[in-house]
Fold this sequence. Notes:
alpha/beta; Nucleotidyltransferase, domain 5; Hypothetical protein af1432; five-stranded mixed beta sheet; 47% helix; 17% strand; disordered N terminus; Exopolyphosphatase; Ppx_GppA_N; ATPase_NBD; hydrolase; exopolyphosphatase activity
Amino acid sequence: MVIPIDPRLNTYFNEYAVIDLGSNTFHLLVAREVNHSLQVIYELKKSVRLADGLSAENRLSEQSITRALACLTLFSERIKQLPKKNVRIVATHALRIAQNSDHFLQAASEILPYPIEIISGQEEARLIYLGVAAHSLLKKETKLVIDIGGGSTEMAVGVGLNVLLVDSQPMGCVSYTEQFFSSLEINQTNFKNAKHTAIQRLEKISPHIKSLSFHYTIGTSSTIKAFHNLLIEMGITDGIITYKRLELLYHYFLSCKTVSKIKSKAISDSRKSVIFGGLAILMALFETLEIPHLHYCPHALRNGVLYEMIKQLSMDDIRQHTALTLSTQYHIDRIHAQRVMDMSKHFYQQWQRQAKTKFNHSLESLLYWAALLHEIGLNINHASIHKHSAYILRNSNLPGFNQEQQQLLVTLVRNHRKSLKPENIPNFTLFDHQHVMILIKILRLAILINKQRQQDLPPNAFQISFSKHDPQRVELAIDADVAQKNQLILLDLRQEQLYWQQYQNGQLNLKIATDMLAINK
């Protein structure tokens, strides 16, 4: 008997995939939603050792890029049928610091038709914590979560799903093994140097972490899993990692002297080759943070990303909370910011109607948050507010924002006034350059029009239109009555015309309209 299948039922829409491009290992996780819960149906990981291919100038070697692309080709076989909204790809430390990451991202885009997000260390720590906390039975207890990756170590403290502190340090099992154990040999001197270097890195953050009085410590990902498995192989089966037990591993490695003499079936050969660096970092963490014991958890970054994709707590909700928190912290004039946001929305919607094309869904939200936060640097100095605001946003931990989203937010705020300079507009992989330039111009106009902080300026008194042949050529129509009553706006707009002309022959045309109703049609 053959059961007929309705062709309208596409199971792919119920599947979600996350790819974690780690510095040492790439992970693919596929799950499906069943009765409002997640059911993992496929997992695959491959040792790529991307961080191993970083030069002294932080450039990825062609060999490491080739290994990474081969892995993505393999992953693509499983997920290439999934719609874009069901896939999220995040990249961590190695691609964060790689000077030629754009070369890799361009090649990867030809294999996978999905955007790759490079996330900050703090955002990585937050998502790792969420992946652990979402599957933990310790709901009300304060937890410290640790993840030692290939190029960085992430730490987060929280209660339930609420994160209290996140931190990322540029020390990982691959980078530390290369720095201190390049010959894959271990002795007391090189191990002591590695551990003390890690302790020095942790000295600044450790008082803040300890002040939160965490009750439990949870370790995740492959490095800590390796120590967990080694201890089980040695007969310690309760799953608890302590400092004394790590010392047992240290003395065992010391007796082996080299990686080639480690006789263990509990960990792979690729993991053995970076184990010394990982152990030095973990022992430094135990000493500095005064950790009594640690439990291993199999859930990690990819689980946090997946959880956030499915649950009602959307990325926009998290970013909105981040933006509002910053606006409160820096005493932003919310009434003025709302007027700028309303004008930005008015112009954005006009652009959207005229362009008749698909936009990156993050563009609109990032424009509004830039409008909300453009005065965040006002307390420092008004004269260079665009620079001070950009500096604060560039150096702040922004939960929910990936690296390029944060960079675009910084770019919009940095260029909201004064001269437009090419060197201030970075290259993006997730966002179209032309779209970025239009957002900058929309924000500049919205801020300039509301510069006098008038309370009676109706957005409908301003109409923006873009040339079909060159969207960077903009016409701004202004209601004649409004223009007559606001000569300062006209004066500022004429200066704005000069700024636009200085940037790649940009053009802003002004039109005083006696019949705005006809224009709005």
